[in-house]
Amino acid sequence: CSQLQTVTYELKSSPLLATRCLVDLVHAEESNFPLASRALLNNTYVDDILSESDTIEEVNQLKAELINVLKSRSFELHKWCSNHPTILKDIP
User: Fold this and answer.
1) pTM tops 0.70, yes or no
2) Is the dihedral of CA 42, 47, 33, 80 positive or negative?
3) What DSSP string runs through the chain?
4) Which sign does the torsion angle of CA 55, 60, 62, 63 carry?
């Protein structure tokens, strides 16, 4: 028996399936990654995350949490963008 381990894009159900994967991840990891969980639930459209914070320190914490929570389920973030150059430092 085999099981598909990816979301196939360009299908009608793809946005729903991608969102469902993120919601399941948030419910499993919310206590360990509170900032990332909030961003994933409230600031995500399919596979784009658009979020903000009041301080550079909080943005760096959010960045670290997003990288780690998504990495824990083999997701990889790329295409980072910021209006502050220090945010883009040290991104794998």
Assistant:
1) yes
2) negative
3) -----SPPTTSTTHHHHHHHHHHHHHHHHTTT-HHHHHHHHHSEETTEE----SSHHHHHHHHHHHHHHHHTTT--------SSGGGGTT--
4) positive
Report the alpha-carbon distance of residue 14 to residue 68 in Å, rounded: 24
Q: Which two tokens stand for residue 83?
A: 């209006």
For residue 48, report the phi and psi dihedrals to the nearest 5 degrees.
-115, 135
HSE-up (13 A, CA, CB side) for residue 88: 8
Report d(CA 26, CA 32) in Å as an integer. Answer: 10
pLDDT per residue, tens digit, the chain (92 aa), is 656 566 666 777 777 877 888 899 999 999 999 999 999 999 988 778 999 899 999 999 999 999 999 999 888 888 888 888 888 887 77
